[in-house]
Design a protein that fits this description.
The protein has 73 residues and is of the alpha+beta class. It contains 2 helices and 4 strands. It has helices at residues 16-27, 55-64, and strands at 4-11, 32-38, 43-48, 68-71. A 4-stranded antiparallel sheet has the order 2-3-1-4. A hairpin with a 4-residue loop joins strand 2 (32-38) and strand 3. It starts with a strand and ends with a strand.
Length: 73
């Protein structure tokens, strides 16, 4: 299956370690091919195989880490 790219707003990050923590957690989610979180933009971009997980699953993982997340159009 091919991956589609999804971008999410992430609030509550304070440092580069926050972004790394999010990337590490998302990389463990089945179907995530790649992820890039940027503190400066307050966003994460995820290449996701929708046959394995949904954008809502990505939001759930981020929120379980203590951050607020929402999909961007």
């Amino acid at each position: 299956m091919s991956a589609t790219t999804h971008t999410f707003r992430v609030e509550g990050m304070h440092c580069g370690s926050c972004a790394l923590l999010i990337d590490d957690a998302l990389e463990d989610l089945p179907g995530v091919r790649s992820t890039q979180t940027t503190l400066k933009q307050g966003r994460t971009t995820v290449d996701l195989d929708l046959s394995q997980n949904s954008p809502q699953d990505v939001v759930k993982v981020i929120e379980e880490l203590g951050y607020q997340a929402s999909p961007l159009p």
